[in-house]
Amino acid sequence: KLYVVILKANFTVQTFRSIFIVCKYSAASEFNPYRVLGVSTHASQAEVKKAYKQLAREWHPDKNKDPGAEDMFIKITKSYEILSNEEKRANYDRFGQTDENQHHGQAPQGFRHFHDNFYFDQSFFHFTRSTRDFTDSKHLLHHDHYMKEVVPDSFKRPYLIKMTSEWCFTCIHIEPIWKETVQELEALGVGIGVVDIGYEKRLASHLGAHRTPSILGLINGKVTYFNYAISKEYLRQFVESLLPQRLVEKVTDDTYLQFLNGWREENKPRVLLFDAVPSVPLLYKLSAFAHQDFVRFGYVDQGLTETLRILQQFNINTYAPTMLLFKENTEKPADVIQSRGMKKQLIDEFFSNNRFLMVPRLVNQKLFDELCPVKQFHRRRKYCVLLITGEDEAFVPVNDAFFAFASANTKEVLRFTYVYQWQQQPLCDALLKKEDMTPPQVIILERRSTTGKVLYRTVKGGWNGSDEDKHRLHEQLELLQRDPSFLTYDAMLPELNNEFASVSVPHDLRQSDKDVVLVLQSQTLHYSFLNVDKHSQWMDSLLELAPSSRPRDEEEEESTPSSKRDYTGYVLALNGHKKYFCLFRPVFTGDEPDCSRSSDEDGGGSRARSRGSSRQRSASTRQIHHKLDRLSLWMERLMEGTLPRHYVSDWPDLKTISPQK
User: Is the pTM of this model over 0.90?
Assistant: First the structure.
């Protein structure tokens, strides 16, 4: 078979050389990369590269419509791959061997149709890129875009990022798998990125990725590298492994009421996801991660006998996945969706319409800004009806009466909220000090500027939840909508405390040699401390009530009457309502490592500990700041909810004080 060549005008020597290369019989005895590129066996790397670029531009299948262009382009590329690599070139020169010798007459497996994904810089070749590489081109990342948009967005969804380059021939092998994986994961809500390290060296250096192809994951601003064989299933598992644990809580007949009643503590609506698969689908996990700031997720496996009662309770159709969203009323869902083809867009719309409780608590400035926006023009006027109250049992009837009133008044211009006075004391002082009032009080306010200025008025008579109080509040809200000048007071509000913010351990506690730090877990973290001299008996009682918190070596030491446990530097995270605690045992990282002890973050595994040496124990006490070196890691796991929990039937009496020596 002889190729027929039509010579055009204005051909050059280079064109003639290109034509000469392909004017040959296909039954050539041997694949020769030198002949393909038209260079001598002594050609320098610069000459090889120059010849390759010229031929690649001419025979690129997107530009050259010759039927043999694809095969020729593959041979040109393979030739350059061999001759541009010193080791492969030397191997060919000595033995005439290439990895693809036995397949020289056809496109090598793995490289067939590789032009579908391989692209060149259009500024160099001066022709428009084919739409065949659109999968990569639309996901290309640049340094500024990555830092300003992708990293912040990674706190809402994980990213899968591929490192590649225009001259990465190995990258061609993974393209079919990458395309298929991107198509599936992007539809579920996973972010996709592609970094060309040839053009984005700054970003590649920032990511610490200098080899191609490489794949990495990004979530919450942190980068993780994928180190397994590239397959769609492994990449899917990798993305799933990036997500925090306990995003979705497994719910059964015995736990669903406790789950639904958690709305008050977490200040979030609750969602129950019903499906017939044993493990939580990735789509639900990604949705839970994206909306975790506003909604708490639970999963009900419809195939378990332990979920029959909850299925009957809410009359669930088991033939299609179902989502029930609950707010303050735990007996009746506030919203429902059911679909056999549950899609991301449907789920996102469902949650965007149900981000808040009927009466949410103001726990930070961001929430205040969303619930009670600043007045911009008359048609967007909104009023915030704020209950200043407490969370003690005495306030429960008062709060419930306010919730009931708000549920019956759902006008668009009104937003009902509440705060706990002790959590937002500066805000409450600014609103109550002029009239010298004490909670519970209802205040109607309108925000007038982002700097904190508000117009407000306190509802006379306070708020006890009586019918008279409800009638009075209703009248004043009606009057306000007729006459905005009803709000007669003005104030400058401080920024709200962030009740969910993490707080670092105070420096003076780190330096103390007599303290047990208490981290009280509720809606936020509150720090306190116990004095070892006064409260060691309380610690003994607490650990006795929870045997799971005591490692074996400590149990052995207890058998020795003279042994006395040193609690210096211990940290407890207590959940008073649910009656459990997490325990951090201090780690000594000074000059005597044998006296080190680890925290519960290893799940209660082996712990190296001193065998009662008073000298070692004294050294450990002096190095208290070293003992807390691993506290930050323990705190991360505490916030993730992955630490072991030690439950107690009741809390020991804190009034128990150890006798003074």
Answer: no
